[in-house]
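Re-running the complex after MR caught last week's input typo. The corrected sequence lines follow. Everything else is unchanged.
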Amino acid sequence: SQQGEEDPQALSIQEGENATMNCSYKTSINNLQWYRQNSGRGLVHLILIRSNEREKHSGRLRVTLDTSKKSSSLLITASRAADTASYFCATDPSDSWGKLQFGAGTQVVVTP
Amino acid sequence: DADVTQTPRNRITKTGKRIMLECSQTKGHDRMYWYRQDPGLGLRLIYYSFDVKDINKGEISDGYSVSRQAQAKFSLSLESAIPNQTALYFCATSETGTYLNEQFFGPGTRLTVL
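Corrected-run output:
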C-alpha cells in the first residue's frame, strides 16, 4: 500500500512561475523525503525533513511539514525547463521500520 | 563512474524464463533495496537488505527472490517471469542509521515479459 499521495497528479506551468505540490500520508513518520525523477531514469533525492521540523529550504526548493495534518508541500520557485520531471514524496513510517514508502508522484511540465 | 549501477539496462524475455537483474554499488552503503515502478503507481518495495546477512521481504515479494552476494552486490531474480512483471526496476542504497536516510538510485532496468 502507498503511504503518500501527491496532489496534483500533473502540473503544467511556464518558466519563472512557482510550482507547488502536496503530499498527504496516513501514519506517523520519522521523516519525509522528496525525490525527482527525469523521464525513465533513477530517482534523485532532493530534500529530507524530519518529523520535528516544520520547514526546510534547499536552493529554490522549500518544503513544509505539518504532522498534525499529515501533509507536506514542495515549492519550487522560479521554475526552469530543466525542472520538468516527476516528483515523489516518500515517508519513513514510525511503525514500519526499514520500508520507505513512495507516493504515485506529481508530473511537472515547465514550458519555456 | 556511477555510484549505483544496474545490469542489464533493458531486457526482453518470454513468459516462464528465469531472469536475474544485478545491482552493484561503490558507495560503501550497507543497506540496499529493490523496487519496481509501474505507471501511475509510484515505487513499490520488493526486497531490502540491511547488511549481507539480512534479507527482508517488501510489499510485493511474491514471484521474486534476491541474493546479497557482498556488501556491494544485490541481485534480484524472477524465477519464472510472467507478463505482469513487466516494469521498470530500480536498485537503491542508503547509509545505516536510526531512521531511513536518503536513498541513492541506480539508472533502472526496463524489463518486458512477453
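None of the earlier attempt is carried over here. The mean pLDDT of chain A is 92. Chain A touches chain B at residues 1-2, 30-31, 33, 40-45, 48, 50, 88, 90, 92, 98-105 (CB under 8 Å).
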